[in-house]
């Protein structure tokens, strides 16, 4: 299923799990945003709104707030010693579409919408192993970092090389 949404004066064709970049929207990374202006719902049966589809919305999660590439506006009037250079970077929001909702449903909260991956489950199940400290180091008060670092030794020149240098 796909939908066409309107935001920032532009229209975007989106489906679930799509990542789109739109003009900046209010919200911090991780916040859920609901787009209420749905113009078309597509799939097996297409629903076209007049101008919007009643009871339809699209939910998305803010991935990050970023800025676009720099655009340089350079104006020069020849033989007039006049020129102007101005740069601009548009502020953007990166949105991951999580759900396409119909019949007036509301988006699910973020905690329920998160999908657990096997790697995340393993990391949560096994706590990080604490480094073992030798009893002697604890008694003397030596730091763990000093124990963990290997002793660095200077490489010695071979005996043949020393005799050649000395001659």
Detailed description of the structure:
The protein is α+β, with helices and mostly antiparallel strands and 167 residues long. The protein has a domain at 2-72 and 84-107. The longest helix has 8 residues, at 118-125. The radius of gyration is 31 Å and the shape is flat. It contains five helices and ten strands, in the order ββββββββββααααα. The protein has helices at 110-113, 118-125, 135-140, 144-148, 159-166; strands at residues 2-7, 10-15, 19-23, 32-35, 38-42, 47-48, 57-67, 71-77, 82-88, 91-101.
Summarize the structure.
19% of the residues lie in helices and 38% in strands.
Keywords, separated by commas or semicolons:
single chain; 167 residues; alpha+beta; four-stranded antiparallel sheet; 19% helix
SSE blueprint and pairings:
Blueprint: E1 2-7, E2 10-15, E3 19-23, E4 32-35, E5 38-42, E6 47-48, E7 57-67, E8 71-77, E9 82-88, E10 91-101, H1 110-113, H2 118-125, H3 135-140, H4 144-148, H5 159-166
Helix content: 10-25%
Number of helices: 5
Order of helices and strands: EEEEEEEEEEHHHHH
CA gyration radius, whole angstroms: 31 Å
Q: What's the total number of strands?
A: 10
Assess the beta-strand content as a share of residues: 35-45%
Q: Outline the biggest β-sheet.
A: 4 strands, antiparallel
Mean pLDDT across the residues is 80
Shape: flat
Distance between the termini: 84 Å
Which secondary-structure class do the elements indicate?
alpha+beta
Q: Name the quaternary structure.
A: single chain
Low-confidence stretches: none
Q: Give the strand order, joined by hyphens, for the main sheet.
A: 2-1-5-6
